[in-house]
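Query structure, 428 tokens:
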């Protein structure tokens, strides 16, 4: 089947490595475009919880893993065909990227009946572009995607909708992907750039050389409110990675917590995550030795559907952008070095990632001020004490808001010192 375009929708964070020769910075964001953002923009899909009813929706990110391209990826050339496995209640991968004119092949790994239905559950035009069904081991459906765009889809039986069985296909132009015929899939000088943490490299999922090596760039616990990402991106980590070609990003999330506006004192935890919280984002990119790459994981939308038992099903619509340009970000960490001559400080964030933070004459530096002195000329209207770069000290815990450049530096707009024992200098 040949498919036309659908309006854009959103798609679905080390140890040490001697082979790290490049660096990847992982940023959590919300790109705020497209139909897939309906829940985050306050225009709810039929059956989903409206944004206006949600006070907060927290999840814990436990791991981000990059998978290098393996033999099974190389067989298909430049995204001529991508495969999706269908289990009882999940598509694997959840999200993938193909070149314009490429084919997606869904293969059943279960006897259970499922559908491949375009759109989102409850949409009036669900199934308008495609609505294929099947059952039985090795049943196959193939679709050709002719036009650029992002195509959300789901499995239509009630039990699948309740389980959040959904996926997305992102179709890009040929020049957005690696050049065909580039056979350098192994990558990797053995040198290390020595800055901050390095991604942990391990073999694939036990299927031999067909699957590429897995590089874990984040493995901890990072709490994020998905609604907060609509206003400011957050840096998750920065880690060394081997040079080479990568085909997948694996995002693992758990422990969703929902607070509704109508009942702010109650935290709802009876929430089922699509694919048990292990989201596969299929996206090809190449990293050369010495590169500083920014990988933006966009929570392009949330589909939160009530269940009859009082619980919910959460389907995050995530996609990834590599080297997406400058980003407005927020990061927290500890100052490890200060150079006032160059106006650069180093801040160690999550998983040991080191960030160069560049100061300027317009950078606001402040700390909480508990003083009641109304005449303190260095106190803002909001009660924060304004400081200068001379007040920054190694060991301070800071929160930085600024612009993350393509080179990996953070151009600081605002720095807040968060140490409780920080002594405010005397007023001048």
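Result returned for the query:
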């Amino acid at each position: 089947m040949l498919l036309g375009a659908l309006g854009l929708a959103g798609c679905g964070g080390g140890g040490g490595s001697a082979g790290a020769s490049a660096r990847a910075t992982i940023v959590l964001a919300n790109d705020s475009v497209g139909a897939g953002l309906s829940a985050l923009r306050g225009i709810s899909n039929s059956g989903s919880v409206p944004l206006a009813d949600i006070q907060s929706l927290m999840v814990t990110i436990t791991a981000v893993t990059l998978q290098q391209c393996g033999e099974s990826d190389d067989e298909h050339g430049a995204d001529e065909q991508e495969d999706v496995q269908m289990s009882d209640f999940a598509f694997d991968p959840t999200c993938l990227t193909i070149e314009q004119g490429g084919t997606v092949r869904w293969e059943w790994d279960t006897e259970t009946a499922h559908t491949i239905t375009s759109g989102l559950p409850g949409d009036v035009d669900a199934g308008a572009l495609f609505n294929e069904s099947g059952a039985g081991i090795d049943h196959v459906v193939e679709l050709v995607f002719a036009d650029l765009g992002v195509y959300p889809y789901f499995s239509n039986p009630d039990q699948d909708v309740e389980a959040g069985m959904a996926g997305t296909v992102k179709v890009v132009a040929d020049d957005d992907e690696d050049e065909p015929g580039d056979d350098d899939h192994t990558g990797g000088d053995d040198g290390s750039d020595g800055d901050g943490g390095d991604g942990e490299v391990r073999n694939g999922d036990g299927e031999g050389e067909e699957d590429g090596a897995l590089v874990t760039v984040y493995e901890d616990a990072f709490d994020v409110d998905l609604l907060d990402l609509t206003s400011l991106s957050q840096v998750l980590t920065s880690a060394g990675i081997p040079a080479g070609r990568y085909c997948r990003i694996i995002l693992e999330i758990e422990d969703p917590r929902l607070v509704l506006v109508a009942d702010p004192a109650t935290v709802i935890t009876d929430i089922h995550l699509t694919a048990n919280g292990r989201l596969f984002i299929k996206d090809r990119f190449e990293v050369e030795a010495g590169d500083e790459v920014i990988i933006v994981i966009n929570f392009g939308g949330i589909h939160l559907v009530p269940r009859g038992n009082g619980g919910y099903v959460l389907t995050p619509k995530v996609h990834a952008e590599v080297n997406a340009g400058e980003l407005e970000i927020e990061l927290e960490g500890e100052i490890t070095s200060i150079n006032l001559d160059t106006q650069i400080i180093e801040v160690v964030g999550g998983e040991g990632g080191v960030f160069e933070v560049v100061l300027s004459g317009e950078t606001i530096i402040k700390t909480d001020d508990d003083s009641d002195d109304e005449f303190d000329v260095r106190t803002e209207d909001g009660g924060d004490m304004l400081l200068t770069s001379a007040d920054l000290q190694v060991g301070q815990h800071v929160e930085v808001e600024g612009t993350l450049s393509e080179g990996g530096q953070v151009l600081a707009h605002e720095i807040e010192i968060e140490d409780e024992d920080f002594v405010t200098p005397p007023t001048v």
